[in-house]
Request: fold
Amino acid sequence: MAWILLFIAGLLEVGWAVGLKFTDGFSRPIPTTLTVLSMIASIVLLGLAVKTLPLGTAYAIWTGIGTVGAVTLGIFLFGEPATAARIACISLIVAGIAGLKLTT
Reply:
């Protein structure tokens, strides 16, 4: 169950990271509210996950999901560059996430 909570927390981290782009400096009420709620939910679920998972593993996976998701959505939603170097780096992060999951 802790892994599921951690995965959802990571997806919510992607949500608030991307949501920041839509808040326009926290000047738009609805995107700001959704972003803040996503932040809170993400932290709460991370907190629940670390009750049973090792802190370092959980935190690294949480941030890794957030990083991979934010970069991927940045490419698809905002036209950010999808260079070979960026894709290679994202692949390394995914490999690290998988490695941490397999060794925990």
